Amino acid sequence: MNRVFRNPLGMLLVCGLFVSSACGGKNNSPASKTLLEFLAISPSAESADYVKEKTQFQLHTLTTEQRHPRTWTLSDKVDTDLPAGLDMLFSVDEDVATRLAALSKDPGPVRTLSEAIEKALLERRKIYVYGTGATGRLAKQMESAFWRPYWRGVDNALKSKLEPHLGGGLEEKLVGEMTGADRALISSLEGFEDLQLIGRLQLKERGISKGDVVIEVTEGGETSAGIGTILGAHDQWKEATGYDVAEASKHLFFVYNNPDEVLLPFERSRSVIQEAGITKINLTTGPQAITGSTRMQATTIETFVLAHAVEDALGRIFKGLVAQQVLTAEDLAQLGFAEDMTLEQRLSRFATVLTEVKKAVPEIARLTRLEADTYMSGHFSTYFANIGLITTFTDGTERSPTFRLFPLDTVNEPTRKSLFQVWTSAKDRQAAWRTFLGRPFRGLQSDLYREPFSTQIQDDFLRKAALESLNKAGNEQQDLYDFSISDANVQRVGPKADDLGVMIALDTEAALLNDTSSDYDRFAALFQERGAKLGLVLVSGGPTPTWRGSASGAPFIHLRIAKMADPFGVDQQIALKILLNAHSTATMGRLGKIVGNTMTNVSPTNLKLIGRATYLIQLHVNDVLSGEEWKKLHGEREPITYAEANAVLFDVIPFVAEKKAQGDEAAAEVAVSIVRILESLRQNRSVTLDEALAQLRGGGLNAYLASVRER
């Protein structure tokens, strides 16, 4: 067709001069109908409810939901110049360094938190850290990667000196909990995150009471479940005789990453920010490297600050006991606190950690390219970790909702679907959970939740989702997942030729890399014997060891970071987190899972993510429609509305769910929605969902958007 027929004005002029069958059909064109009429979509009841009633979850005004100017062209950069793309990602971590440098000069509320932890431990109270999604995994890390391993490493003679002053059961003093409990480590449980009620109920189930220190950690400052937790803890103070607002604020902490002024319009956030009985710790760094991906900078700074605050508190307790002649200087050294280190000095160390990670960009790029090529050729990865297990596991599981990948496979899957899996040194699945958590698996006791869910959740959609998720949150869920390097697991999901095995070693594990009796060497040997590839990440202050992959030139990243005045190993874990976050993001970028720096493959599993998905559909469609090339080819059209984008999204959600159940890796709600809209407008007909999905199979959404402007 001549280009004039693709222009509405040209069509109007031709129709004014001639009578033709083509002009007579103009009422069927997209320009003469609303988008939803053209696509033959009637907004579902859930979509209509979301647009009208769920405005408090439409969060695209938040700072963490904005596009970071330094990563605007990330998807193209990781494809054409991978080291430069990694540099681009790490440049956003500089925002964390800047914020921590300022905080180190005036720790303010972080010092208040450290002093509260010190006082609580001396009074034999609990420390309760709660989060949702990425911050929930942070809370689990606080307990299971920092607190419990530390106390397991303290010998009994030292514990016997400490217990008269701190009480027994030291491992149990810090409780890390997440929305949905341990099962939610694998993937989010739909409906839970949007309920303040569940935060209150979990607070009760874990036995947290007035006088305990409660730390609610939320990436954005608006997570309902977390807000329910901190308000529930505050109610314990308000309902007690002689409520003291100042004393309450010394026990209750709300940690978040958005400016107060952008959160205040949201009622649930406002109820916390304006409450004097809760101490606020605002760690805002700015937009994330990937728009809305708070698994990155937001949780990095929160983990770093909270873990060092706990270390700081323990250091003061132990030095106080030295002054009382309960402990000796030698005891202090054994406890890991021989060096004097102030809170200010702890917070200022982040820049050194980041610098060390950035030095490794060339070798990180080798691993990223190898992993992306592994997936593109239809193969899989297996990571092996022990000390770094939770950090590694968290990065891997969070790829699923961020990039719409299959979640970790259950033991019932006949063949692998998840691109990523993780193993650890354990003889079977139960032992693997104990290695992971440092304690038995802890699910939700459904009898404590079912009646409140049934009677206190007024929203029909949320009630239904929460009750369904409750059936997937109990202790029985542990039997569905096996992270062990057992013979049975090796036989079931072991490596095949051209798969990838990545070993993660921290600190003293360096010595195990060339120890033929270790599980590290066993893992490497297994992958080599089966024709698979290898990679290694080591974070330690010691010399670079040899290992099985040395001869073949396998990617080997060694971050030289020692555990100086850092008995928890916080700096090493943070370095690993920063590295893996950038590596996995760049890997997914090379697979076409991001567009620019936007999370176009996000899984819309809660109200916030539905809002993000809707906004991204609207953003990318309107970006194309406003382009000069599109307008020349297809004419001008009004931008699509938020309500239209949401209606299309809800129409696509069941289609993608069905495709995912069939094992379709390419299906993603945002991407299919965008393509369906643009292809329908481009072809002047309502394309089917299958046709839209087919457009994504070549190079993903990024490739489609690059080409559609010129077709």
TrEMBL record:
Looking up SUPFAM superfamilies in the UniProt record yields: SIS domain
InterPro entries (alphabetical): MURQ/GCKR, SIS_dom_sf
Q: Which PROSITE patterns does the record cross-reference, listed alphabetically?
A: PROKAR_LIPOPROTEIN (PS51257)
Q: The organism sits in which domain of life?
A: Bacteria
Which N-terminal stretch is annotated as signal sequence? 1-22
* Gene Ontology biological process terms, A to Z: carbohydrate derivative metabolic process; glucose homeostasis; response to fructose
A GO cellular component term found in this entry reads:
cytosol
Q: Give UniProt keywords alphabetically.
A: Carbohydrate metabolism, Signal
An example of a GO molecular function for this protein is:
enzyme inhibitor activity
| Entry-linked Gene3D superfamilies | Glucose-6-phosphate isomerase like protein, domain 1 (3.40.50.10490)
- The name this protein goes by in its record: SIS domain-containing protein
- Origin organism of this chain? Melittangium boletus DSM 14713
